[in-house]
Amino acid sequence: MSKEKKEKKKGSCFGTILKVVLVIVIIFAALYVYMQWSEKREREASYSTDYWPTDGIALMLPEPEQEYGILHSKSETYLHVTTGHVSADDFTTYINECSDAGYTIDYYQSSRMYDAENEEGYSVTLNYDEDDKEMSITLNAPKEPETENNEATTESSNPTAVETETQTEAAVAETESSEELVDGMRPEFKEAMDEYEEFFDEYVEFMQTYSESDNIVTLATQYAKFMTQYSETMEAFEAWEDEDLNDVEAAYYVEVSARITQKLLTVSAE
Length: 270
Known about the structure:
The chain is of the alpha+beta class. It has 7 helices and 6 strands. The protein has a 6-stranded antiparallel sheet, with helices on both faces. Strand 3 (105-109) and strand 4 form a beta hairpin. Helix 5 (187-212) packs parallel to helix 7. It starts with a helix and ends with a helix.
């Protein structure tokens, strides 16, 4: 075979391989787009009009103007809500409302995030997803003083018969509720994974702002806070490895872990 024919054949093979690779890339890109679209449709289907609580810790924040949203979690010390159909202007408006409500201490603000505390120690974190047009609202109550915690521990170490029975019933109820799987996963596991990933979105965005800032002194307090949260979040996230996860949970754990690693790489690469 002549050299010219060999080169021609070689070029033809390379062209075929390139076409196959392009087809594979297009297929995976299409699947990714479909999965994102499907996830968004599924999330929007879970929207409700009565998502915002009318009592408890929710009273510490202004009620969002958005008609639709999702109540992820609510307790005496914690609130997590997502509102839908939020524009960038809507996000800025709600930041201003929170600021007017007193959340101005140690604040950090960007086009997609706001984090601040009020004088009572309540901490609010707002995140804006420009692609999905959603706003995530997280509120944490102040931690109790150590003395109160110690008193509560001492009292709980000597429970009465009634308290013991109540605690037992609560434990049984908690076990039964944990067996109710959502999409093959325990609700508390799915919520924990999503909250961890949401934190790392905030962390990556802040670190990008921090690395690009000409005046990092103004961000020092927020930086220290993120470093503490980063350590605690990583510890809590990795603790799930020791849990008895089912196949679906294990797969989702690996998926979230991979996404978090990819996000952290974007920070370390800068």
